[in-house]
Design goal:
Radius of gyration: 26 Å
Order of helices and strands: HEHEEEEEEEEHE
Strand order of the largest sheet: 1-2-3-6-7-8-9-10
Shape: rod-shaped
Largest sheet: 8 strands, antiparallel, barrel
Distance between the termini: 35 Å
Number of strands: 10
Strand content: over 45%
Amino acid sequence: MHSGGVLAAAAALTILCLQPAEAADRTSPATQPATWTGSYIGAFLGRAWGDVDLRTDAGAFIPNTSYFTAPENIASINRNGSGSLSLDEVVGGVQIGTSLQSGQFVFGLEADFGSFSIGGAKGVTGFTYPVFVPPADYTMRASMSTDWLVTGRARLGWTPQPNLLLYATGGIAVTNLRVSNTFSDTATSQGVGGSSASETTVGWTLGAGGELALSRNWSVKAEYLYLDFGSVTTKGSAFCGPAVAAICTGLGFVPSPYTSSADLSAHIARVGLNYKF
């Protein structure tokens, strides 16, 4: 998580922790929260930082039959289509939940839905093959993207003051992760390739936060979530272009595997406003 996000989340939680005593002095008993028990709806706004491990695999060299004709070419494609991506975007959405208080402890369930539009790519344009006769260039790209995020979490909290709830939270996280790749070259064989995959991925999330009751019905919160979605892979191949595919087949060439995968984890720091029924 970027240092700015950590500082922002820490500052928000610090404000929440410093306010209870002062708020208790200013707030009349009529507006103090009677209990955290109840259901609520709300909205949130924050920032997401995505950590992506993007990997491309052009297969293994098979002498006299592999389309890429040399292990150096395969290594070049793998290197240019792989690497780490650090991405960040503004996120926002809505949440709904319910809580039950017993003494100073609060147990709850919460679900939220919001934007989660992060994406990035690795690739090159007009990169010269290390070994190709006659010399030729290739262009390739591997990319990933997401649009939305749903989480379903339990919350376990403690109230050091009647109007302040500190909590840990964890559960499932769901997003649609898309991975795609493309390939072409300027060789006489007019190589082309590419594929794409889109998968609704169920991962997990853990985090912590603080919520400050402003009245019997309204509260504000600040929280941090870590999310992990695992990996999605797209599997395709690269081969001679349609105009010369029959010639390549006659020479004994076979399509070379051409796959890309993205391993996604993310951090979210956000603030929200809730209305309790």
